[in-house]
Amino acid sequence: MTLILAAAFLLSILPPASAAEEARWRPALPGYVYAFPRDHGAHPGFRTEWWYFSGHLKAPQEEGGERFAFMLTFFRSGLRPPAPDDPPRRSRWALRDLHFAHFALLDVRAKRHRHTERFSRGALGEAGAEEGGLNVWIRDWRAGMERDGAIRLAAEGVGAKLALVLAPRKPPVVHGREGVSQKAEGEGRASHYYSFTRLAAQGELTLDGRAFRVEGSAWMDHEFGSNQLAPGQAGWDWLSLQLADGRELMLYHMRREGGGIDPQSSGTVVDADGRARHLPRDAFRFEPAGTWKSPVTGAVYPMGWRVRVPGEGIELEVRPLAEDQELSTEGSTRVIYWEGGVEAKGRWGAESVTGVGFAELVGYAAKGRPRF
Amino acid sequence: MSAPWLPLLRRLGWRRLRQEPFRLALTVAGVALGVAVYLAIQLANTSAVRAFRNSLDAIAGKTHLHAAGGDAGIPEELFPKLRAAEGVEKAAPVVQQTAWLRRPGPGEERWTRGAPSQGRAALVLGVDLLGDAAFRGYRAEGALSLGEMLERMADPRGIFITRALARELGVGEGEWIEAEAARRLRFRVRGILQPAGLAEAMEGRVALLDIGVAQEAFERLGRLDRIDLILKDPSRLEEVKKRVEALLPPGVIAERPVRRGEDVEKMLASFRLNLTVLSVIALLVGSFLIFNAMSASVVRRRGEIARLRALGMTARQVALLFAAEAALIGLAGSVLGLGLGILLARGALRATTLTIRNLYAFLEAGRVDLDPLLLGAALAAGTGVALLSGLGPALAAARVAPAEGARELGAGGVGGAPNSRFIGRTLEGALLASAAAFALARLPAWGGVPLAGYLAAALAVAAVALASPALAAGGAALLRRLPGRALWLAAHGLGRNPGRNAVTIASLATAMAMLASLVIMVESFRRTVAVWTEQTLRADLYAAPASRFIKGSGASFAEEALDRVRGIQGVAAVDGFRSLRVPWRGEWISLSAGDFGVLAERGRLLFTEGDSAGIVRRARERGEALVTETFALRFGLKRGDSVRLPAPGGETALRVAGVYYDYTTEGGHIVVDREMLRRVWGDRRLTSMAVYLAPEADRARVSREMERALDPSMVLISNAGLRRRVLEVFDQTFAITYALEGVAVLVALLGVATALSSNVLERRREIGVLRSLGLTRRGVAGAVMGEAGLLGLLSALLGGAAGAALAAILIFVINKQSFGWTIRYGLPWAPLAGYLAVAAAAAFAAGAVPARAAARAPIAQAVREE
């Protein structure tokens, strides 16, 4: 979902240079045929692309049983669509994309949230996103897929150092219909969006000098598109849940300025065996249960949700693991948003279920497009 | 001043203006010219230096420290290391290139045979705009955000140019421009920079590329020209500098960005001193003029002075009255001179800028900075010099006794009777000054400045002035023996007033001596250079990137071009030349390389000792270096010495195999075989090539094929064309010198005219008597003109002789110590005689106005005055 975050950022800094150039960006259109591992790699023809990882980790009981939630996202923002008559670029400074990355970590017991960010134009190989397979990095922050399909994550900062290996437990799930995840009315107002909804995580986390062996479960989103946001959209609420029974749920609301939910909002349910079903806007309800006001930015976020998917028999109460999981990304995307670990409790059909997940709340901070 | 004085001064002054408007006007004009050239030179120099410094400041931005490696650049891998260095807050990579920009022409025409004539020289900077905004300010038209600029700069053919360049090239956003550095390139203007920050450097001749585009366009892959650093704590610069230096490979240095400016300013200092000395001469010649005019005035008004004294005015008051008059004339002249100087400054700035561009560094300077300090100094100098020159005559006026009869005009005082003791004493002084000059000329430079040389030159000029009375008297004595009435009258006039005429001769002779010395020096230099080009430029064709015609451009091309040229039928040999600016001993030097094999076989260098082929061959075999004479002098090197140069693999020791004459750069070169440069420095690029043809080759065909084989931005020059170009640059450099000298002579000629017109006024009675005795008007005019001609002739002779001596001081002492060039002294008889003849003729012509006045004088009135 964070795609739109990057897009919002791009809209703020990069208004269309020329109609001709704008037209050269590839729109996300129905009929896109996915192929993996190719589609794990970068898609330079699209203007915006991101690789999002979040998850819940736990240290072994004998080491204290500490719980953590992490988020690590790499963004690629294309500056200019490649032109057929462009000369071949040979400089290691050649400017194609801007690269950003956000890293956040929540110490669940202490309810202490920390985040940091990176930004690079990718000169001298400092940052990049390879085509053909997953390999994105900014300096020593990296997400890359090994030959065996496992994904290695590495990030470090604000006293936290994370190194994880993520093993997919289910094949990638493509969201939306016909290979596109519509974000608003209109052709191309969409992205290509797929997820690894369940990855087994294992690795090491060093926090303020203390090292933990950790394991847990992670989620990956990969999304790419060119001009998915429509005018009049104010932000979005997004939720991903991994339930203890092996099923997953993803939902998003595109919020309109002046209130109201865009009819193109949607979701996906994934069964334990990996089969996925698209949820159109009217198939689910995703309602806030309370609010939280950020003491830093003054933004008032919805906090806690009631989720109903009548067709699936889903009824869930979702609560944040901590209220303060706000990110203020002054040094890169300059967007203020809330992105944090949540837990869920409720029923799926006849059975009672619990789960963990992540929520993303964008567009609640003070108005005024950031300029950079 | 006490009150009664002012009206008196006013009355006397007014009367003088009414009586002698012509002479007064000439005197004022003389001072004005002197002040004007002095001011123009100062303004031009300060403006040029300031423009240079401002440009450097704008280019450096907020940089505290930068790492640079000269033309070879620095490896880009250094960038992350420096950015991470302790104490470094921000780092910015820079690729910098001077290039010719122009609007694409209709065809693919090439700038052949000579310097590129179209296009604008501009500084093209490749930056990473993301990080660079912290270093240099940018503002693009259309209020583009940094992100928008960045997006446009991601265009691999996108360029930003300044508003000034857009206007000059006649292009707008979205249009294409051509840039020529080492290759011809096409860029699309993606944005226009407003005059702020970097865009104000070089008078707006600035273009901006993304660093990646710049690396590709200028074939600088993997290299940066500079890494600019902003420090966390600028007060700890030295500490951080040491830490940064520890990270740098050999051949890369860390320095403050102002260093480059200081270097160029240091180089400019000699140039500036020379011009200042020259401009002061015009001022001094102008002071002779005042002296002359005031003396004449004192003589003319002896009666008046006597009456004033009789009426109770003190001697002191009389002296003050005349001194005030001199100061007033000086002030009037200076004020006029200020205006004229400001007008002239634009031209002087253009000439100075051209010289700086030819000799030192790329510079654009179009605005004359009207520094009030300089204006004040010029005003003070003009008035002060006038006051000083008027002191002698004023004291003479004070000596006029109240009772003295006002009858005997033209006698006594400064303009007084022939005084053999005075003549003897001045002659002794002249000899003494000459001897002192001779002795001083043997002293070495003092702290890099040839102080003794300048003093010697000043003494030589003084000797000329001191020798003038004897010359005037001697000339008169000689002429009196010659037949002919008109000539006799002229000789009489000359002999009658030897004191004042001596001053006239002194001023004219001084100016002519300076002129002669410059003519001798410049012509000797020019001939030396011409002979040198003939002897050492042996190849038939030369090729270099167009931007090599911008000093310090650092443009280079890939050596593969050599092979393409070698393959052309009729080409016997090709010598690839590389010149690199590298740091050494805390200074930037030029490390060059040529193909010593080709050089030994076909080329030739003029060594201070030994034969070219032998030395070059040995240097090649033993891996030794050649240094230019200027380089040897700059670092105190001689044949056999060893120097240690930084190279990527560490220091390399080089023995100096020979010292040769070279007039291409001021700082000189150290030259090694190209094979060695490749091996030790890993450099595979070239800055120019020399092509030798087979005896039977068709030069036109080879040159056509070369044009096809080389990039269109390569300029091809024939041997004759290159030699012409060398002399063109030479002449441009000295154009301003000639202009200054011309002004000094002009001022001196004004002196001749005023001196003669005073003589005529004083001798009205005599002329009247002669006319009544039957001398025709023509005869009178002829006599006055004759006297003028005699003054001119004597001055030319004295000036010519003294100029020859002065030139020796300029060539062997001042030039050698300031610049280090060996100039072969030669007397250019024809131009020298020509200039002196013209000056003498002009003196003769300057007598025309007074001659007409003399001829028109009514006999009756003149005699009645008796």
Question: Could you explain how this protein is built, in words?
Answer:
The complex is a heterodimer of chains A (372) and B (866). Chain A is mostly beta strands and 372 residues long. In chain A, 5% of the residues lie in helices and 51% in strands. Chain A contains 2 helices and 25 strands. Chain A starts with a helix and ends in a 10-residue tail after the last strand. The C terminus of chain A is likely disordered. Chain B has 866 residues and is of the alpha+beta class. Chain B has 4 domains: 159 residues, no CATH class; 195 residues, no CATH class; 255 residues, no CATH class; 190 residues, no CATH class. Helix content of chain B is 58%, strand content 15%. In chain B, the strands form 4 sheets. A 9-stranded mixed β-sheet of chain B has the order 17-18-16-19-15-14-21-12-22, sandwiched between helices. The longest helix of chain B is centred in the middle third of the chain and has 45 residues. Chain B is elongated, with a radius of gyration of 32 Å. Chains A and B meet through loops of A and helix 5 and helix 7 of B.
List the helices and strands and how they pair.
The complex is a heterodimer of chains A (372) and B (866).
Chain A: H1 2-13, H2 19-24, E1 48-58, E2 67-78, E3 97-107, E4 112-120, E5 127-129, E6 135-138, E7 141-145, E8 151-157, E9 160-168, E10 173-174, E11 181-182, E12 190-207, E13 210-225, E14 233-243, E15 248-256, E16 266-270, E17 276-280, E18 285-288, E19 291-293, E20 300-302, E21 305-309, E22 314-320, E23 326-328, E24 336-348, E25 351-362
Antiparallel strand pairs in A: 1-2, 1-13, 2-3, 3-4, 5-6, 6-7, 7-8, 8-9, 9-12, 10-12, 11-12, 12-13, 14-15, 14-25, 15-16, 16-17, 18-21, 19-20, 21-22, 22-24, 23-24, 24-25
Chain B: H1 5-19, H2 21-60, E1 65-68, E2 74-75, H3 78-84, E3 88-102, E4 120-127, H4 129-132, H5 146-153, E5 158-162, H6 163-169, E6 176-180, E7 184-193, E8 206-210, H7 211-217, E9 223-224, E10 226-231, H8 237-247, E11 253-255, H9 258-300, H10 302-310, H11 315-359, H12 372-398, H13 420-440, H14 451-480, H15 485-496, H16 498-536, E12 541-545, E13 557-558, H17 560-566, E14 571-584, E15 587-594, H18 596-602, H19 612-622, E16 625-628, H20 629-635, E17 642-647, E18 650-660, E19 669-673, H21 674-681, E20 685-686, E21 688-693, H22 699-709, E22 714-718, H23 719-762, H24 764-772, H25 777-818, H26 829-846, H27 848-856, H28 859-865
Helix pairs in contact in B: 2-9, 2-11, 2-12, 2-23, 9-11, 9-12, 9-16, 9-23, 11-12, 11-23, 13-14, 14-15, 14-16, 14-25, 15-25, 16-23, 16-25, 16-26, 18-19, 23-25, 23-26, 23-27, 24-28, 25-26, 25-27
